[in-house]
Write a structure and sequence with these properties.
- The protein is mostly helical.
- The chain has one domain: Glycosyltransferase (Alpha/alpha barrel), CATH 1.50.10.
- It has twelve helices and eleven strands.
- The strands form four sheets. Strands 1-2-3 form a three-stranded antiparallel sheet. The protein has a three-stranded antiparallel sheet with strand order 6-7-8, with no helix packed on it. A three-stranded antiparallel sheet has the order 9-10-11.
- A hairpin with a 7-residue loop joins strand 2 and strand 3.
- The longest helix is centred in the middle third of the chain and has 17 residues.
- The protein is globular, with a radius of gyration of 19 Å.
- The N terminus is likely disordered.
Length: 348
């Protein structure tokens, strides 16, 4: 059964680029956003990954822009975009450098891009450009979407995207090409399609779901974080064969976009959940839990799936936000935002 497509208020605002702006529903609440800002966003607009040595990266800047938009905070959006534009948009191809370290000189310690970070930034800029009538944001989003589109390639009849421009291609690895299934920002694809129509974003979205289904493996039927698609889908060489930190956000992205089907979402949520309600990082071959994640920002993801599939109310302890670490805190706010906009019955 195909999910009815559910879009956030930001996507509704983008019903046509260049159309009049519509009222924005702020689905990240002011106290939550204030707590997030105090903990993870500095005065420059740098989003700090405090679980990863205090670095910043294009993913974090994209998440920060998205949450600022969902909170209706135009001033902070400007600040985050200013840092992103001046500190990360340094590549000749229009993509963002992915890694910035406060202790290094120069601060960019890896100039390679991260495709999910690029998509998150473009998506947030497009939403803000439309809702706030900022043509400069829309132009920046368009340029970035067009640059991302140049990365697309066909493998076994599916249009796909690499995790980065360098390092994962057919000729760069013995098991190449390699992809990361958690880099598919499904809710962004309709927006990217309007920005950069020369790329078949629907085919990229559909191919991502087909590849995800084909990649489920092991006793718990979960996808590997890094996936070789050279022949059959299998864990990529040189990476742990596990369902890891990146992969836990796949169901979140799917639910926020209304992508996939109930069977796939249920399989992912069941496979990643331990009996005590925590989320597991899983060894794919044995099915054993390698690490237990008890943070609310992780545990809300299976709860979000249960809401989307069967209308199950979200447990009370997951309905309020308190910041912990950057990554689960970000996931928590994205999940709560979607629930408020599209599934309020699961919060009552």
């Amino acid at each position: 059964m195909r999910f009815v497509h559910l879009v956030c208020a930001a996507s509704i605002a983008l019903s046509g680029l260049g159309s009049p702006a519509v009222a924005q529903e702020e689905t990240v609440l002011a106290p939550e956003w204030s707590a997030y800002l105090e903990r993870f966003v500095d005065e420059q607009g740098r989003v700090i990954d405090d679980g990863n040595g205090g670095i910043s990266h294009s993913e974090g800047q994209g998440y920060g822009l998205t949450l600022a938009f969902l909170a209706g905070d135009q001033a902070t959006f400007e600040r985050i975009w200013s840092f992103t534009r001046t500190e990360l948009m340094l590549r000749d191809d229009g993509l963002a450098a992915w890694k910035w370290s406060p202790d290094a000189d120069p601060h960019v310690t890896d100039i390679n891009n991260a495709t999910d970070g690029d998509m998150l930034i473009a998506y947030a800029l497009a939403q803000a450009g439309e809702a706030w009538r900022r043509e400069d944001f829309t132009q920046a989003a368009t340029a970035l979407a067009e640059a991302i589109g140049t990365l697309a390639y066909t493998q076994d009849g599916r249009l796909t995207l690499p995790p980065a421009r360098e390092g994962y291609g057919r000729d760069e690895r013995p098991d190449g090409p390699v992809i990361n299934p958690s880099y598919w920002i499904y809710e962004a694809f309709p927006v990217l399609a309007r920005l950069a129509p020369d790329t078949d974003w629907q085919a990229i979205s559909d191919g991502g779901l087909e590849t995800l289904r084909a990649s489920l493996t092991g006793p718990r039927a979960l996808p590997p974080e890094w996936l070789s698609i050279a022949t059959t889908e299998r864990p990529a060489q040189g990476f742990a064969a596990e369902f890891g930190y990146n992969a836990v956000r796949i169901p979140l992205y799917m639910v926020r976009a209304g992508a996939g089907d109930e069977a796939l979402l249920t399989a992912l949520a069941d496979g990643m959940s331990d009996p005590d309600g925590s989320v597991a990082l899983v060894d794919l071959e044995s099915g054993e839990t390698r690490e237990t994640l008890a943070d609310a920002g992780y545990r809300i993801i299976p709860a979000l799936v249960a809401c989307a599939v069967s209308g199950t109310p979200v447990p009370d302890d997951l309905r309020s936000f308190e910041p912990t670490l950057y990554y689960p805190s970000t996931l928590h706010l994205l999940a709560l935002s979607h629930l408020r906009q599209a599934r309020p019955e699961c919060l009552s």
